[in-house]
Specification:
The structure holds two protein chains of two kinds. Chain A is α/β, with parallel strands linked by helices. Chain A contains seven helices and ten strands.
């Protein structure tokens, strides 16, 4: 039980239900069956679950890409009714515009918001610098590595200065080494920019490494199995993976998940 | 948990103590292969989808071009009676005769103009409706049935009707080119638009784009190379229908010239026109390929 809740809630989800209608051959699937979830301003929260637990669906509902069947989803007390640039999203891959350069990709959300050209340039340049993409600003996605592409995707989602960043397995398609570099990179960005982040992953170690709090979901239907606080220091680095507390937390979350697994 | 059974009834998974596990008897079942080697060697020229040496590629392309010409020379040298096949030299003379009569360029221009106008209209309709169809299920539901139906009415079957309704000037020919190609173009452009990855569209929404912005600034540019491919592939069909229209009613045009040549038994001129059709096709094909490379360098063919 947490004793102090001083920070305002950025995202509040209550009693969320999402069902996919069936057909004659296939029964209806309840992907999410009553999920309550909160993310405070400036927090980094991870959701872990086995595949098919509806965690991507959950993120899509928050992003406004799919409607909820029941329940409340609010950002700063305002109900989510559709997609918008206030909730930046990063997907697993293939979501960059392949015909646009890195700079043009990042600028897209500023163009739709009709940010004046001069300011647009300034903000794109700033993000390119933060993300370490200066040398690739004029390249197109095809010419970038997987890790680089995801950096562009994060920069693009951050450009309109969203209230919350929603990450849907952003490192899922990367190799193990790149993944490790990218999670430190993400922590750095989070500390520097101070944005609120809700991230979905199936990688338990990644979740515990990044998050201040981890929600563990059950599968079929998706419910919250446990909410695990991660009382590790915010400025974590690779050394933390040898910390006994880190290892305990990782195994704890892993155990909860393994109980859910049906082969 | 009870042990899982697979299709053959063999018990798999860890067997409880005291229970016998089924052990599969391994016997190598290999096809023909040479002793002392493993695997089957593949010939360098016949590997599925692999590149071949550049020298071979150029050589095979040259041979592919030379073979029909050689066959043509061979057949024309032995032709006699009613089955007259003019030689390449005679065909060239036929073309020169048409040129000297002052009709060749006029015919070429008349036919090309009809194609340019008709096919541009066809592509314009196909792009607007096709992108709508591939993007919005409602537009798709409305347009798919009539398009599917119209596509199966051979445009050539409409030639008499169009001539009857619209007379024998340019209008029926251009209309026929549009009718003969627009339904194919439409369905194929819709397919191209449908191939825009969902994640790219979703990403655009979460970057503040509305539906029209997504259509104009995401679906359209992503579909551009595919649209050019569609235009390239269906252009040949547009020429086919034009030829039928010109055969029946025209005062100039390449197909009209073929009918004229037939009337005067000038087979060399007929051959010359056929070759010209082929050249027009190859040139427009190359031009559209170049356009694709220029307009969408990000999408390798």
């Amino acid at each position: 039980m947490s004793l102090t809740i001083v920070r305002p809630e950025k995202l509040e989800i209550e009693g969320l239900v999402k069902t996919f209608p069936g057909s004659r051959r296939r029964p209806a699937v309840t992907a999410i069956d009553g999920i309550d979830l909160r993310v405070s301003a400036g927090e980094l929260v991870c959701i872990v679950g086995a595949s098919g637990c509806g965690k991507s669906t959950l993120l899509n509902v928050v992003g406004g890409l799919e409607p909820a069947d029941a329940g409340r989803v609010e950002i700063d007390g305002e109900a989510v009714v559709g997609p918008g640039a206030d909730r930046g999203m990063v997907f697993q891959g293939y979501s960059l515009f392949p015909w646009k350069t890195v700079a043009e990709n990042i600028a897209f959300g500023l163009e739709t918001a009709r940010v004046p050209r001069a300011e647009r340039r300034e903000r794109v340049d700033e993000l390119i610098a933060i993300m370490g993409l200066a040398a690739w600003a004029d390249r197109i996605p095809r010419e970038l590595s997987g890790g680089m592409r995801q950096r562009v995707a994060i920069a693009r989602a951050l450009a309109p200065r969203p209230d919350i960043l929603l990450l849907d397995e952003p490192f899922g398609a990367l190799d193990a080494q790149t993944k490790r570099v990218m999670r430190d990179f993400l922590l750095g960005v989070w500390r520097d920019i101070g944005t609120t982040i809700l991230m979905v992953t199936h990688d338990v170690e990644e979740a515990v490494y990044l998050a201040g709090r981890v929600y563990v979901l059950t599968s079929h239907p998706g419910r919250v199995a446990a909410e695990v606080p991660v009382p590790l220091p915010a400025d974590r680095g690779p050394a933390i993976t040898r910390d006994p507390l880190f290892l305990d937390l990782r195994d704890h979350v892993q155990d909860i998940l393994i109980d859910q697994v049906r082969v | 948990m009870p042990p899982l059974k697979d299709d053959t009834g063999t018990t798999t998974g860890a067997a409880p103590p005291g229970e016998r596990r089924t052990v599969i008897q391994w016997r190598r079942t290999l096809g023909a292969q040479r002793r002392g080697t493993r695997g089957r060697r593949q010939h360098a020229l016949l590997r599925v989808r692999d590149d071949i040496p550049a020298a071979w590629r150029i050589g095979l392309m040259a041979a592919g071009l030379a073979t029909p010409i050689l066959l043509w020379l061979l057949i024309s040298s032995g032709s006699s009676g009613d089955l007259i096949v003019p030689s390449p030299a005679e065909t060239w003379q036929g073309a020169m005769r048409l040129h000297d009569d002052g009709v060749l360029l006029g015919d070429f221009w008349a036919s090309s103009r009809r194609i340019l106008i008709g096919y541009t209209i066809s592509m314009a309709i196909a792009i607007v409706l096709g992108l709508g169809m591939g993007t919005f299920r409602s537009v798709e539901a409305f347009l798919e049935p009539p398009t599917g139906f119209m596509r199966y009415i051979p445009a050539t079957a409409l030639v008499p009707l169009m001539l009857f309704w619209l007379g024998i000037d340019e209008t029926p020919k251009i209309t026929l080119i549009v009718l003969g190609s627009v339904f194919f173009n439409l369905l194929m452009v819709a397919d191209v638009a449908r191939a825009v990855p969902r994640e790219i569209i979703n990403a655009s929404y979460t970057l503040g784009a509305g539906r029209l912005t997504v259509l104009r600034r995401v679906v359209l540019p992503h579909s551009l190379p595919g649209i050019i491919d569609v235009a390239r592939i269906n252009l040949a069909a547009a020429w086919s229908i034009l030829v039928v229209a010109e055969l029946l009613a025209a005062e100039e045009g390449l197909a009209f010239r073929i009918v004229r040549a037939q009337r005067f038994r000038q087979i060399d001129e007929m051959f010359a026109i056929l070759i010209i059709f082929g050249i027009i096709g190859v040139v427009s094909d190359l031009a559209l390929r170049a356009l694709r490379r220029r307009a969408a360098p990000w999408a390798r063919a």
